[in-house]
Amino acid sequence: MKMLEIKFDFLGASKLFATISIVLTVASLLVVMAKGFNYGIDFAGGTEIQVQFEKPVETSAVRSFTDKMDLKSASVQSFGDSNEYLIRMDSIEGKTDKETNEMLNALLAKVTKGLTDEFSAEKATVRRIDSVGPQVGAELKRNGLLAVFYSLLMILIYVGLRFDYKYAPSAVFCLFHDAIITLGIFSLINHEVNIQTLAAILTIIGYSLNDTIVTFDRIRENVVTYRDYDFAIIVNRSLNDVLSRSLLTSFTTLLAVIAMYVLAGGVIQDFAFTMGIGIIVGTYSSIYVASPLVVLVDKWQRNSRKAVTKTVTA
Fold first, then answer.
1. Could you tell me if 247 and 146 lie in one domain?
2. What is the 3-state secondary structure (H, E, C) of 132-197?
3. Domain of 245, in residue numbers
């Protein structure tokens, strides 16, 4: 029998981390259901104006300006430094598309001129205007959910064909676990959910899957090498084999993401923030979620085969 050395007993703490993962997943779902998401204009619809001042301007001054413009439902958010803000307004709907466009153009012209006049000393400059209708926002939201669903479905099929069907549920649940916890954190801190967030979630799914696939590959190789050992022991050895690779890959990727978050701004910063959470959660789940689930499914399959054998024998 070939000797098998295990430095870290990952599966020995699997019950503890399974409990932690279940609690985090359930808590994330409850937070999402209770608070919902702070949707950006990509999903909620509306108009967003990014304005920059040459001199620092207090947030209260910008809010006072929106009140003067009779934009009672408008929200003001600091964007980067204290001299840059996002002014978000609700959607405008006319009886026809033409009327809607005319109303929107008139409102934007009014706000742009008002900013120039009100903050002439601070020299206000409108850097960006984004406008999304409520129907388009709802369609983008629906398509985003479908994109996540179809990606998980295709991953389930791919892993089932590439490895074995006992690996597929573990991989998909692991990805579901990562996405739900990330979205739960977003809901908890009221961070904006927009197209960039969705792109980061899909990137996290691919990143986490890659880490999980590397672990599954090593498990499959070790099953042949250490065929006389119990499957759970082989999984434990495989996790030790890929540990340094997983940690180094995650650490270097996290360094790049931190640099993007600190040095970049706007949508890049939102993307980096989401990726940072996903990398940490994904590295954890590939070790303490995916692999223990493979062992659990393997035990279930073995017990099912034994039950069938007993029934046939009887």
1. yes
2. ECHHHHHHHHHHHHHHHHHHHHHHHHHHHHHCCCCCHHHHHHHHHHHHHHHHHHHHHHCCEECHHH
3. 11-39+137-313
Query: Position of tokens 């062992």?
Result: 295
pTM value is 0.74
Q: How many domains is the chain partitioned into structurally?
A: 2
pLDDT at 44 over 60: yes
Q: Is the dihedral of CA 181, 163, 152, 296 positive or negative?
A: negative
Identify whether 68 is part of a domain.
yes
Over residues 229-243, the pLDDT tens digits come to 888 888 888 888 888
Q: What is the DSSP string of 67-115?
A: HHTT-TT-EEEE-SSTTEEEEEE-----SSHHHHHHHHHHHHHHHHHHH
Give 136-178 pLDDT, tens digit per residue: 777 777 887 788 778 777 877 777 677 667 777 788 888 888 8
